[in-house]
Design brief:
117 residues; Gamma-B Crystallin, domain 1; 8 strands; globular
């Protein structure tokens, strides 16, 4: 009888010791998504930002007035985030390409598209 409470206590201790996901951990990509992005209201990504959101290749993502910074949290292969000064992802001069997980300022950017996957 003494053995059973000891096992229950051991399992309870293990459950409490299990690490919970932290805000700065890189998420896993869901099936069909090429990139996970985190949007920020500051160009330096200095505040907590919004939730991680997954996106597929090719969709044009018009930005809102409050989107000032972005971090690529996770990406598949060689995917890149192309940034445009127009809301419709038209190619032209001034296109910026982001491929690293650092903070990217979106100053002067009005749409982005995941490409080159």
């Amino acid at each position: 009888m003494l053995f059973k409470p000891a096992i229950i206590a051991a399992f309870a201790a293990l459950a409490c010791a299990s690490p919970f996901p932290q805000d700065d951990e890189v998420p896993t990509l869901a099936v069909g998504l090429e990139m996970t992005l985190k949007w920020f209201s500051h160009t330096t990504c200095s505040h907590s930002g919004g939730p991680d959101r997954g996106y597929s290749e090719g969709a044009c993502l018009p930005l809102s007035d409050t989107d000032h910074g972005v971090k690529i949290r996770k990406k598949k292969g060689s995917c890149k985030l192309h940034a445009y000064s127009s809301k419709d992802c038209k190619k032209g001069t001034g296109v910026e390409v982001y491929s690293t997980t650092e903070c990217h300022s979106l100053k002067g950017i009005w749409s982005v598209k995941i490409e080159d996957c």
